[in-house]
Write a structure and sequence with these properties.
3-stranded antiparallel sheet; alpha+beta; single chain; globular; 11 helices; 8-stranded mixed sheet; Endonuclease, Chain A
């Protein structure tokens, strides 16, 4: 059966389609995918091509943002990419478990703005006008939304700050879902302090991952958290790729940012913060459902991890801050 190609179909229908691919993250993309879209009239560009030497040491600074903006009026962002991995329900081995958020209303222009700034760097083209930034965006729903983007190559670390402030504000509960959980000392202390101050901290990480060295580097630091009473679970049903946080049943964040140095210090990232009880409690329910497919990590079991895992931890230690 012929696979649907909605982007190419929209291009042929006369809709302006701009596709920005990170040159490193999209290395495995089939060449005919790009050729077919371009032949259909889509504008496909590469962010920081690997064959160029970027000034200011930007080669390692990748675009990790994931967003889809339609007519400047609706936006989807989160952790999902575009491949068959994300076409399932996240409960079987070949279908990654992810979470995205759809935004409508004035906040869409900020998601569009994040795309426009990376598109400008990649192509030299400025996206503007009514078709990209409608002059009237009527508020939708009851949720207050804040779009936060970071670009460390430009000195912008807003998402890292947002995480720290949110954790420090917790009073009852913190629910964290993240696939790359390699915390620095400041983030570790923030979670420990939140727990000490009375917030129940529960973390969901992958039980299987596409980069085993990252998983081992993450597990190496579980001891302090587990000993303090923070609960950690490993998702077993599929590869966990969602990046969410819910605090006190009233505040939530969904986006592209991993809890590791690469996301905070190297990559361009995009997160959406929602100030709304209904949204936060929905994330809490999703979290509880995910725990049914996860196994809790206890301090006792972690302490008995094998020699092989401990050796890999030592190997990962020198490059831990690069993960």
């Amino acid at each position: 059966m012929r696979r649907p190609r909605p982007l190419a179909e929209r291009c042929r229908a006369g809709v302006g389609v701009n596709v920005l691919l990170d040159a490193f993250g999209s290395m495995g993309i089939p060449g005919d995918y790009v050729d077919h879209r371009r032949d259909s009239g889509c504008h496909v560009a590469w962010f920081r091509p690997l064959h160029r030497l970027w000034p200011g040491g930007k080669f390692a600074n990748r675009n990790h943002r994931r967003s889809l903006v339609v007519d400047g009026r609706a936006a989807i962002t989160g952790g999902s990419g575009v491949s068959r991995k994300w076409m399932g329900n996240g409960r079987v081995a070949d279908h990654w478990r992810d979470t995205d958020i759809r935004v409508e209303g004035p906040a869409v222009s900020y998601v569009q703005g994040s795309f426009a700034e990376t598109w400008l760097e990649a192509t030299g083209m400025v996206l503007g006008g009514e078709e990209y930034f409608p002059t009237t965006l009527t508020p939708r729903g009851q949720a207050h939304v804040q779009v936060v983007r970071s670009s460390p190559a430009s000195g912008d670390f807003a998402i890292y700050t947002a995480f720290l402030l949110a954790i420090a504000s917790a009073r009852k509960s913190i629910l964290v879902t993240n696939p790359y959980f390699v915390l620095d000392e400041k983030m570790t202390e923030a979670l420990l302090d939140a727990h000490t101050n009375g917030a129940k901290v529960t973390v969901l990480v992958p039980g299987k991952i596409d980069h085993n060295l990252v998983r081992t580097a993450s597990r190496a630091e579980f001891g302090r958290l587990l000993k303090a009473g923070i609960e950690i679970y490993e998702y077993r049903a599929a590869l966990l790729h969602a990046k969410t946080m819910a605090i006190d049943g009233v505040w939530s964040m969904i986006g592209s940012t991993n809890l590791d140095n690469a996301s905070f210090a190297l990559n361009d990232e995009l997160n959406v913060i929602v100030y709304n009880r209904e949204v936060a409690q929905r994330l809490e329910r999703i979290f509880v459902e995910d725990l049914k497919h996860a196994k809790q990590v206890t301090f006792e079991a972690w302490s008995r991890r094998g020699l092989k895992e401990r050796l890999i931890e030592l190997i990962a230690l020198p490059i831990r801050d690069l993960l």
